[in-house]
Amino acid sequence: MKSSAPIRVFLVEDSPVALTILKRILASSPEVDVVGTASNGVAALEQISTVQPQVICTDLHMPKMDGLELTRIIMAAYPRPILVISTSVDTQEDSRNVFQLLQAGAVDVFPKPSINSLSDYEQVKHELINRIKVLAGVTVFTRHASRTEPVALRTPPTSPKSKPEAFSLKPASNSPFSILNSQFSIPKVVAIGASTGGPQALHAILKQLPATFPIPILCVQHISEGFLQGLVDWLATECSLRVKIAQPGELPKPGTVYFAPERQHLQLDTQRRFITVSTPPVSGHRPSATVLFQAVAACYPRSTIGILLTGMGRDGADGLQAIAQAGSTTIAQDEQTCVVFGMPKEAIALGAAQHILAINEIAPMLLNRVF
Question: Between 14 and which of 44, 62, 268, 331 could a Cys-Cys bridge form, CB atoms 3.0 to 4.6 Å apart?
Answer without folding.
Answer: 62
